[in-house]
């Protein structure tokens, strides 16, 4: 292998720049050329490439987003699209590809590998932490810190006005952000896609805490919570069924994806970049790099994509006990 390309695809996450920097510098360390691909698979199909040397990635380890830009590409879902992409890779003399993205991006990489036997390696970049084969995806830790910071700020106003706040956080299919940030932010209740708490229990829990002397409360709601009501319907329900609370809603939205990556994510990104490039050099392909028991390990794309991450039941119990 002499020339490796790197791209970012799907939703962006904090730490992607740190991962790009790591891939570029690991290439330089091993005397490989590195090519940056702009706008994910879209740019791969169009040949939107730029050679990157060690100095070209200075000053980005602390930046959120991705300097290579990200995109979703419909064309790459077609054989014709992938054929074009393969042709551009070959024309540019590229013999390995590092894809930084989520499970959709890995599916694309896996299909490219199946069809053209092209060496690919994945780095899990998503704030949702929903990929099997790594205890932490890139950006998860930063997103948690962002959410906890927001909860702390909302708590200040909640307690000043005796308010009950419903705070919506990202997580359509998984509740990792909600559960972890909820515990760290001292939430009263946490509603996640994996578990149906039930409306009655929610109201009962809020009544109980009111009786015990609490004057304000915070409930964290993952986007895809199992109760199946959106956050405004939840507010209306509690408004209609509880007295004495001024109920408010705050939807955190895309701010959760932004910001400077945490120390943890910067270190993780640096480790993942090294592992991805060195695994390609060892002749490996079709794997995702991940953190397992403090070590960098490889997981076949197939397992990473098909698996579903499980919620930590111990955390659920801790959350229950904390809201006593
Ligand atoms: P996020 O965690 O933000 O959802 P993701 O990587 O899962 O990130 P997707 O939009 O699902 O984001 O996928 C990114 C891109 O990967 C798609 O726009 C498409 O180009 C490619 N891709 C996804 N699924 C496939 C597929 N089945 N075949 C070919 N390409 C795919």
UniProtKB/TrEMBL annotation:
Q: Does the keyword Cytoplasm apply?
A: yes
Query: Is Cell membrane among the key words of this record?
Result: no
Q: Detail which positions bind substrate.
A: 126-128, 163, 170-172, 223, 248, 254-257
Positions with a binding annotation for ADP: 21-25, 155, 186-188, 214-216
Question: What task does this protein carry out?
Answer: Catalyzes the phosphorylation of D-fructose 6-phosphate to fructose 1,6-bisphosphate by ATP, the first committing step of glycolysis.
GO MF annotation list: 6-phosphofructokinase activity; AMP binding; ATP binding; fructose-6-phosphate binding; identical protein binding; metal ion binding; monosaccharide binding
A Pfam family it matches: PFK
Give the record's pathway: Carbohydrate degradation; glycolysis; D-glyceraldehyde 3-phosphate and glycerone phosphate from D-glucose: step 3/4
Alphabetically ordered keywords of this record? Allosteric enzyme, ATP-binding, Cytoplasm, Glycolysis, Kinase, Magnesium, Metal-binding, Nucleotide-binding, Transferase
Q: Where in the cell is it found?
A: Cytoplasm
Lineage in the entry? Bacteria, Pseudomonadati, Bacteroidota, Flavobacteriia, Flavobacteriales
Residue numbers annotated as active site = 128
NCBIfam families registered for this protein in UniProt = PFKA_ATP (TIGR02482), PRK03202.1 (NF002872)
| Annotated InterPro entries | ATP_PFK (IPR022953), ATP_PFK_prok-type (IPR012003), PFKA_ATP_prok (IPR012828), Phosphofructokinase_CS (IPR015912), Phosphofructokinase_dom (IPR000023), PKF_sf (IPR035966)
EC numbers for this chain: 2.7.1.11
A biological process term (GO) from this entry? fructose 1,6-bisphosphate metabolic process
**Assigned GO CC terms:** 6-phosphofructokinase complex
Q: What influences the activity of this protein, per its activity regulation comment?
A: Allosterically activated by ADP and other diphosphonucleosides, and allosterically inhibited by phosphoenolpyruvate.
Concerning its family, UniProt says: Belongs to the phosphofructokinase type A (PFKA) family. ATP-dependent PFK group I subfamily. Prokaryotic clade 'B1' sub-subfamily.
Give binding positions for ATP.
11, 72-73, 102-105
Top enzyme class: transferase
Q: Which reaction does it catalyse?
A: beta-D-fructose 6-phosphate + ATP = beta-D-fructose 1,6-bisphosphate + ADP + H(+)
Occurrences of domain Phosphofructokinase (ranges): 3-279
Question: What does the record give as cofactor?
Answer: Mg(2+)
Q: What is this protein called?
A: ATP-dependent 6-phosphofructokinase
Tell me, how does this one assemble? Homotetramer.
